[in-house]
Structure formats: structure tokens, C-alpha cells
Description:
259 residues; TIM Barrel; 8-stranded parallel β-barrel; 15% strand; globular; binds phosphoenolpyruvate
Amino acid sequence: xxxxxLLNKTSHAKRRQLVVGNWKMNGNQHSNAELLAQIVAGWQGxxxxxxxxxxxxxxxxxxxxxxxxxxxxxxAQNVSQYDVGAFTGEVSAQMLAELHCKFVIIGHNERRRLQxxxxxxxxxxxxxxxxxxxxxxxxxxxxxxxxxNGWHLEVIRRQLEAVFAHVGRDVFANAVVAYEPVWAxxxxxxxxxxxxxxxxxxxxxQLGGLAEEVRILYGGSVxxxxxxxxxxxxxxxxxxxxxASLDAEEFLKICKxxx
Length: 259
Ligand code: PEP
């Protein structure tokens, strides 16, 4: 591990660690209730890390019914860029706020790749989430080809710029960034500590005066077995989890590693 990674995190103590579970399109009422009961039982009392679960939209209400009164927070996986109107199948940020969501994931690479979401749409969604007083978790990250060509920082810069162009940098005081290299999401491959630190530091360098305040999560095949090593990296403030968030034991181990 390079010298820069040996710094401890005490100088960044003001950034509360954050672990977000993105369930994607998994689960059912019964399996969700079991999963949540275990998570809530294992995450009681005071913690120095925030924990968020993001179920599919139909399960937001039953999820909230189980986590209410616990420190576990609710998030959504996607949102419309519009506030109201004839947008069949869409859900507004205001609706998510009414259902007790605090966070909304936007720009996840599955939506960018599979639903064709553009940087411009992601920027619109970022604004819609903040209009509803929710916290956007802005996902950015390069593809394997982009990394192999050495373009990863340029891709990250462009994805951030698309949002800065609309809202500036100051609004990141109420936002979270998640660096998710596309080649590491759901693949079992994780960025090395050096790769992750390079990009996280770069993201901070783009955030102007808020550089040291914004929480920047790492996402991409985080598991209980690699979480501690990742969380020891100075510029990583927690994780966005896919697969590992569907297993209560694994999820709680990761939450505890961040705590
Ligand atoms: C994700 O989908 O955001 C993610 C990080 O998935 P996984 O943890 O399964 O790689």
C-alpha cells in the first residue's frame, strides 16, 4: 500500500461514515421483513456511522414501518427529474420525501447504461432531489475500457461537471458522491486501495471549498472481507453496497467496520 494510504483518518473525523444498501430489484415482502428485522436488531443505539437501506419503491412503506425508531434510514434507488405531471411510471422526489426517504441514489451505472440516463438527466435529478430537501447520492465511475485507456479521471471530471454546470459546487454541502467503477460493480472485482484513493482524492479536488466536507463513498463489490481495508483509506467515507446489502450478517459487518 502506498505511503499516502498509511495516513490515518483522524484528520477527517468531521465526516460521518455512511453505508448505503442498494437492494436493486430484489426481495419480496417476506424476505425483506426478515432481512430488516435482523438489520434493525444488529444496529441499535448510538453509532458514529449512518446506515441507509434503499428497497424497491413498492417496499418503501413496509420498510419504513420496520426501521422507524431505529437508527436505520430510508433511501430510494431512483427518482424522476420532474416534480409533478404526466410522467407515467415515474416517482417524484416529493413523493419519496412523504414516504420518509432521506437519501436518493441517482446516476447509478445500471441506469446510465441500461436506461440510457444522460449526465444532463442525472443533473436534473440531482436538483429535483434537493428541491424536496432530500440528499442525492450521486454515482459516478468509469467503464473498464475508459480505465484501460487511462481516461478514468477525465470521465469523473465530466460527470461532476455536468452537475456543477447546473447547480455549482456549494450545493454539495447536502449531497453525497459515490465512486463506483463500473467494472467493479457486481463483478467481484474491487478497486485496489491505490486506485480508489486516487479517484476519491481527485473527486475532492473538484469540490472546491467543500472538498474536505463532502462524504465520498466507494462502491463496487465491497464485502465484509475487504471493507475494513477500504474504510482505512483516508478519502473513503463509507460504501454503497449492492450484493452485500441483501445479507444481514454481511451488511452488519460492513456497517460495523464503518462505525
Ligand atoms: C452497486 O450496485 O451500487 C454496487 C456497488 O453493487 P455491488 O456491491 O454488488 O458491486
